[in-house]
Amino acid sequence: MRKLTTIILSLILISSVFAKSPHGDDFKIDCSVCHTTDNWTKIKMQGFNHDSTSFKLTGQHETVSCKKCHEDLLFQNAKSECISCHIDIHQQTLGRDCEQCHTTNSWVVGSITQIHQQSRFPLLGKHAQIDCYQCHKSASLHQYETLKTECIDCHLNDYNSAINPNHITSKFPKDCSLCHNESNWQSATFNHNTTSFPLRGGHIGVECNSCHSGGYIGTSTACVSCHQKNYNATINPNHITAKFSTDCKTCHNVTAWQPSTFNHNTNTSFPLTGGHVGVDCIKCHASGYTGTSTECVSCHQKNYNATINPNHVTAKFSTDCKTCHNVTAWQPSTFNHN
Question: Cα(185)–Cα(187) distance, rounded to whole angstroms?
Fold first, then answer.
């Protein structure tokens, strides 16, 4: 009997050398690893270690019939992608990588929330408690189409229906995160100090609509854009007739309109010294506060014309008053002929 077995094995080996393998020319595994001498179609299930390939068998794959994946004898034709064997009930809405959610142990997903945390839209606050169907309308069909992640994409109805304040008439920006958070809609807050116009002094507590009557986008930070009426109504001194600059910061601050101050020595190119200190502003700025000449004669032309000892007009004196006078007083005047 032993001799017969030896002869059969020898014949198998000889035939394996000259016969073409049904598994392809590149298949290098010895036939005896999987086959027996009793029956060619009887496979030794423990004969081949699938873990030695690029596709290890784990979970339910360990008990699946080889023919489920290997539909023909050319084993290299079997693909390793899940979708090559398993029908994609998600219709490509979640991509082709089934292992993002599923394992070989079971199709049942263990923790959808945990998986969602690794996506481009982690579920935080109230988002972690709502039903999937509220955002994924086709979830009942196991289809999870790609959604936009901006708040307004889901909360446009909340934006449109808000009345305190009315978001539409107030022209609120549609970036909900500026005021709202993921905990709840009601505890809405906005830190104005994070903008380019921090609220200080008298600006704190002012009704938003006072400055944002035209909306909340592109609001000017120039004082006069909100305080034009204050500028127009001021009569002591009258800002319009005096042609004051509309840059309120020149004289006012954010604490209060009064007292207003203006430092002529630091804010202009003409410091007030000597006899100029205490002179009523309108004396020099009768035509307004913009482009006022710093030439002495521009204010003192009458002094020049009225002087008779000596007579400046007939003597044709220079109109550069500094030649003889100084800012302390008109007299005594000096002139150094040398």
Answer: 6
